[in-house]
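[Solved] Which block belongs to which protein?

Original post:
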Amino acid sequence: MRQIVVVDQHWGIGKKNDLLFSLPADMKHFRETTSGKVVVMGSNTLLSFPGGKPLKNRVNIVLWPGGEEREDCIIVQDLAALFEEIEKYPAEDVFVVGGAMMYKTLLPYSEGAIVTKVEAGGGAEVFYENLDEQENWECVSVSEPMETNGFVIRFCTYKNKAPLAFGK
């Protein structure tokens, strides 16, 4: 399992249950990376999508305690059920896509993270863990900078040197 996230220069990820930036190149990267795969999210992330509908061409697993079953995605009630569901898929096909609580809760179990870094501040209210300051995490690759919609971004790949096993 890996995480995929966009952060501003302060590791901010969102405000008012929305993204900080409109980044067409990152959206394309996200689609290409996760299409045909499994995306894991919390209920607020699902509800933030247009019409509260899950992402197309992906298996959507949503941790939503008290959430009603739906035909368009898999709703799990707790972390144990989430881990049980995730284990049905190859680890390299599973991506945590938000929100902040899901990122934080699942970070120790994630083998890696694909972080799009934006060279700007976004006025965030919600933040991602600064992986550059995490003992078990190391940046293993950084793309060349690219410009999209007036912002400079870089795709950075991080590796967790000691991911926890589910249920530990």
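(Second protein starts here: sequence line, then its structure tokens.)
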Amino acid sequence: MVNVEPGQLARSLAGRDKGRLYIILEAGGEYVSLADGKYRTADRPKRKKKKHVQLQNFGNPKLKERLSRNETLRDEEIRKILKEADTVLR
């Protein structure tokens, strides 16, 4: 099983949000909490099963460090990170 950590990027594999890119805010047990800064904000993250997301190879060590210190991310920051990542991953 792949280790899922806060700060990683994930693409939805199932549901009406299929194909959408998210940042993992929390990971525990069978579920992850996801935010995209637009439809799913940091205050209201989407809860999804781990098997319904695909981890992306786009690392941002500063982001992981901030989430490990329990700092909150602003929605503007989330959107900016995802926009940069989406251009690289496509």
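Accepted answer:
You had them paired correctly. Confirming on the second one: The chain is about 25% helix and 25% strand.
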